[in-house]
Amino acid sequence: MEWSYVIAAVAVLGALAVVFGVGLAVASRVFHVQSDPRAEQIEAVLPSANCGACGFGGCAAYAAAVAAGKVGPSECVPGGMEVARRVAEIMGLVAEEKARQVAVVLCQGGNRVAERFGYQGVTDCRAAMLMQDGAKGCRWGCIGLGTCAAVCPFGAIVMGEDGLPHIIEEKCTACGTCVDACPKQVIRILPAKSTVTVLCRSLDKGADVRKTCSVGCIGCKKCESVCPVEGKAIHVTDFLARVDVETCISCGKCVKVCPMGTIGNFRLSRRPANGKLAAQQEVA
Amino acid sequence: MARTFRGGVHPPDGKAATAGLAPQRIAPEAALVISLRQSMGAASAPLVAVGQKVLRGEPIGKPSGFVSAALHAPTSGTVKKLTTMNDPVTGGKVQAIELEPDGEDRWHDACNQPRAWRDMAPEAVRQAVADAGLVGLGGATFPTHVKLTPPKGTAVDTVILNGAECEPYLTCDHRLMLASPGEILEGLDVFMRATGAPRGVVAVEDNKPDAWRALRDAAADLKHVEVLALPVKYPQGAEKQLIKAVTGREVPSGGLPADAGVVVQNVATAYAAWEALAWQRPLTERTLTITGDAVSRPGNFSVRLGTSVPSLLERAGLDAEAVGKVIAGGPMMGLALATIDTYTIKGLSGLLCLKSPEMFAHGPCIRCGNCVDACPAGLVPSTLSLLGEAYEDTQLDALDAAMESGLMDCIECGSCAYACPAGRRIVHYVRFLKAERRKQLARERERKSQQQAAVSK
Fold this sequence. Notes:
Distance between the termini of chain B: 65 Å
Number of domains of chain A: 2
Helix content of chain B: 25-40%
Largest interface: A-B, 20 and 22 residues
Radius of gyration of chain B: 22 Å
Helix content of chain A: 25-40%
CATH architecture of the largest domain in chain A: 2-Layer Sandwich
Structural class of chain A: alpha+beta
Order of helices and strands of chain A: HHHHEHHEEHEEHHEEHEHH
Number of strands of chain B: 17
Shape of chain A: elongated
Mean pLDDT of chain A: 86
Largest sheet of chain B: 6 strands, mixed
CATH class of the largest domain in chain A: Alpha Beta
Number of helices of chain A: 12
Largest sheet of chain A: 2 strands, antiparallel
Shape of chain B: globular
Strand order of the largest sheet of chain A: 1-4
Distance between the termini of chain A: 88 Å
Oligomer: heterodimer
């Protein structure tokens, strides 16, 4: 056996190892990038959903922006107050209180609304929208193909047998991904405290609504007349009732008087023992 | 070498039922409802008030912007109301003008007068085309004057008149070429004058030898005009494919035909241009084909804009019980109507009434490559459809991948979906991805403007 070959090989590779090692060491000094260690700490605290609700292209981008002092620590929507407090701690700031928000589906149509034609295209609301604005008889309401449920990064939306998406409020972080995805803009992010909501977006006249939907707002203004708040917390404009979140006292009078069962009271629906929405009972 | 383009398919043409039938002219009797959205780009703005009396050819809508078209009263009568109607293409509600005909059908004084248009400057010709409300009558409804105004830095040397009529079932262009070859060639002259192009070509598919002969005979004395018979293949009438077949030039990705030195116009648009220039008649009427196995009296019909579609279908003998689907346009690129309760517009080239809408079971891609062979744009449609599925499954980077795969070069001709043995809805996936791309761009613009606003604060 020629030991000289082995020794030569070891020597050459060893020498190369030393040269590259020194090269890398020098390079890491010379080309060192100054990074804020706080950015990494913040990123570790963030939920890593990369939902973009903060307005940045992912958790890392937001963390860098916070570390650089460009934005406040309370912008992470899914993280909520818990994360805001911890981010603020890292930055030595005080997190401002933000009211919890949830996504709400503003349509009760679903299977109750007849289809204008048989849709056989791609099973995605955004694609269905390209075919005559979706097959549903009501052009304002939910198409019901479940795009919101598919895009929700937290699994907080499930499609019910009634053909409508249902928000699981405990899981919902109000990140707004579903709001962006819904081509009918049927989902809206609302403060969790606002319990009385008009579950319809139709701007059609009452008679037209009745033709297509049994639970749509017909703009009859009964809710407006019964509202006890001074200056009214619910107004009908363009044939659609709208609740003023700021002034509504959630008394529930409009919910009772609504002839179509369009106005929802989440205080009741959150506690099923007390009863359900008129519309929900009808389905059951 | 045969003049053709790569890819393409040969669907059964279904033209026999109506190819031998000259258009019937239908006089406006019942109320006309004229959509204000008759062209690509911005809708027209109404120019008339309720109760106003108008004469045929009087402007009733003015273009709102450059890519928009003027609109004229299709007959004489009284404006009943400003209303809304179902758009026959998109299905959405659009603004419309309801016109009650007075039965006299009188032209406006400024219209229907001969004009010595050959002395007019190119700008004046273009303006006259715009004033007549001309749009591409092949179905795309792109305002004609915009196409005749090539962007700076491009020189047009050829005007191609598209008489391919490659879309199955439709024969309205065929009948027009037979009836008015001379007028169509005059219209070609209008386009050549407006663009300064020295050469004109009329391209006809060779399944219409009579139309080709008529045009050739009419063009016998015209030195700069060539009448070509192209081999039958769908989508021969697609702009970029027609340019490739006729001139051998390719329109660059993302470019306009003018980048290849060509302007393409439909033969029906050329006829309308002749009417507009030589007779000062604005576009108020078009010919369309009503056919399919659910009508007993198929045919070609020359109808005023705003004619009610149910009345036309009744005239054609629609079997209301048996009909399963009414398609606006032809079977390859047309869109099924959600409701026939609508009115004709400039871009409506046909109404195809089918008994049993053929529905294919759709399945996963089997990687056979038929769509790749069929694609006239040289794309890989199977990949685009798979990326569409991936995007649906919330893989957002699928959109970027689709962009790299030439998403925007797809002309949505449907050859791939026709060739697909798995019945995949490839065009719908492409349209879906394109729509999402447009949304993405809009969001990016919004984000940028917000960031700029934040910086300037």
